[in-house]
Write a structure and sequence with these properties.
There is one protein chain. Helices cover 50% and strands 12% of the residues. The radius of gyration is 24 Å and the shape is globular. It has helices at 2-33, 67-70, 77-86, 89-103, 116-121, 127-134, 168-171, 174-180, 193-206, 223-236, 243-257; strands at 58-63, 107-110, 157-159, 185-190, 210-218, 239-241. By secondary structure, it is of the alpha/beta class. It has 11 helices and 6 strands.
Length: 258
């Protein structure tokens, strides 16, 4: 009788422990399901740092959010379309644009543009120039030169003068506009990863801006080009992050400001 009672008590204790263990496991699973995924550095030796975000001095900076790159049927779609779809680039750019409006920071668009006269008269074309000219990208006034329909400029968007090289800091008004708006920290992404985004990134740091690059809101002409961009971002930027990461930090900065 005593043995039966002891066994019953032991079974009760074990069942309680098991239920507690299952509850903890379920809780951990739910927590992990909502954990923000961070950027994983490809180079272990690279130092890590986390910039303090001052919303009064921070802006989202998006390069080439135009149909020729990020809309099916665009002149560059055959080169980058697979990466745009796989990386959910448009969706992430929209998230960043909307978050900027919510937390009260501006969005800058740096667009690419050529005139028909440029196409007729430019004579010294490097590799990327030839690709763009052969595929007739970003011709002024065309559908391809226009903004993706989900990324049309709104009242929170500053559209910079278009660039004809790879960086608006050289052939546009990026530095002037950013300074006039009091921006010192750029959260940069857009198209394409190893060309205009990387070129803008290099010029941004040369002009003294703090730079955070959003690595998963961009694409390139193949996996190798994207990997090369990510490696260089790690050298160039103060931080490399994911969309989820930076959105969470922007909302936190907004909450702390309030």
């Amino acid at each position: 009788m005593k043995n039966t009672k002891a066994l019953s008590i032991l079974i009760t204790i074990l069942a309680t422990c098991l239920n507690h263990s299952i509850a903890l496991s379920d809780s951990d699973h739910k927590h992990n399901a909502t954990t923000v995924t961070g950027y994983v550095y490809q180079q272990e030796f690279m130092p890590r740092q986390t910039l303090e975000i001052d919303l009064n001095k921070t802006a989202i900076f998006i390069t080439d959010p135009q149909n020729d790159f990020i809309s099916e049927g665009g002149a560059g779609w055959s080169l980058v379309g697979e990466g745009v779809v796989a990386g959910k680039v448009v969706e992430r750019l929209v998230q960043l644009r909307n978050t900027a409006r919510t937390v009260g920071i501006p969005v800058f668009y740096s667009t690419h543009m050529y005139t028909k006269k440029d196409y007729d008269n430019w004579t010294s074309l490097n590799g990327i120039d030839k690709i763009m000219f052969e595929n007739k990208l970003f011709i002024q006034g065309t559908w391809g030169h226009d903004f993706h329909p989900d990324l049309k400029p709104d009242g929170n968007t500053i559209v910079l003068n278009p660039h004809k090289g790879l960086s608006n800091f050289w052939t546009g008004d990026a530095a002037l506009q950013l300074r006039q708006y009091g921006v010192t920290t750029l959260i940069m992404t857009g198209m394409v990863a190893n060309m205009c985004v990387e070129s803008h990134a290099r010029d941004a740091i040369e002009n003294g801006f703090d730079l955070i690059i959003v690595a998963d809101a961009t694409a390139a002409a193949g996996a190798d080009a994207l990997k090369a961009a990510h490696i260089n971002y790690e050298f160039l930027a103060h931080e490399v992050v994911t969309t989820d990461e930076i959105i969470k930090r922007l909302h936190k900065a907004k909450a702390e400001k309030n």
